[in-house]
Amino acid sequence: MNTFATIEEVLRYEHVTYYTVRIEVDDKKEDENEFEKWISKHSQDDSIKDEYQDLISFLERMGKELSAKKRYFRHERKAGALPPNWKKLKPQEKEAHVTYSKNLRLYCMRITKSVVILFNGDIKSIRARTAEECPKVRKFFRQANNFAKSIDEAISNREIQVDTGNLIFDTDFEIAINL
Predict the structure, then answer these.
(1) pLDDT tens digits, one per residue of 119-163
(2) Alpha-carbon gap, residue 7 to 22, rounded angstroms
(3) Which residue among 16, 96, 103, 112 is the one 20 to 30 A from 65 at the CA level?
(4) d(CA 154, CA 159)
(5) 3-state secondary structure of 70
(6) How confident is the model at residue 98 (pLDDT cuts 50, 70, 90)?
(7) Which segments within 32-125 are labelled E, that is strand?
(8) What angle do CA 145, 150, 152 make, to 5 degrees?
(9) Is 67 left (phi over 0), alpha (psi -120 to 50) or beta?
(10) Is residue 21 within 8 Å of residue 147, measured between CB atoms?
(11) What's the whole-number average pLDDT of the chain?
């Protein structure tokens, strides 16, 4: 089974451009990209409605006014995760923050303060201390780190170039991935 991913832009704001990946297995592209899958799964879940809206609002605030500062992302090996560790934010950055009781996670990769790649995620169980210990997020954590490793290599090999607020790559560029 040959598994690849393509990169596509999903949101563009003044300060941040967000990208995501779409998986392709044996020459068949999945209907939804990874960020769309995350939205589809979590946007209608009333038990995490506030956490979901908080993350969506935070993505918008980063894009429109804050930029993607390193402290906004939880370091998760090669990848990152949202929401931020709220204790690391300045008071003015905590605007509209809600208390996370369900621990919704969105895995991502911060390339620069103006380029972020959004992946997928789930609700981290409260009993799990780390993402690896949680049966729900482990898959997404590992997947995000595989994507991030491949993207890092493509940047190092100049297959992907980073320009102010943009990723530049050939239209037929694909990342070989192990899922």
Answers:
(1) 999 999 888 888 888 999 999 999 999 999 999 999 999 999 999
(2) 7
(3) 103
(4) 5
(5) helix
(6) low
(7) 74-76, 79-82, 106-112, 115-118
(8) 90
(9) left
(10) yes
(11) 89
pLDDT per position as a tens digit, 26-62: 888 889 999 999 999 999 999 999 889 989 998 999 9
Partners of 163 in beta bridges: 166
Residue 32 in tokens: 């939804």
Residue 115 in 3-state DSSP?
Answer: strand
Dist. CA 3–CA 53, nearest whole Å: 32
d(CA 118, CA 135): 21
Helix, strand or coil, per DSSP, at residue 23: strand
In the chain, where does DSSP find H-type helix?
34-42, 49-61, 138-156
With CA atoms as reference, report the closest residue to 20 among 100, 138, 136, 140. 140
Q: Please list, in sequence order, all residues whose beta carbon lies within 8 angstroms of the beta carbon of residue 7, skipping any fewer than 6 positions away.
A: 19, 20, 21, 117, 151, 160, 167, 169, 173, 175
- % of the chain with per-residue pLDDT over 90: 63
pTM: 0.92
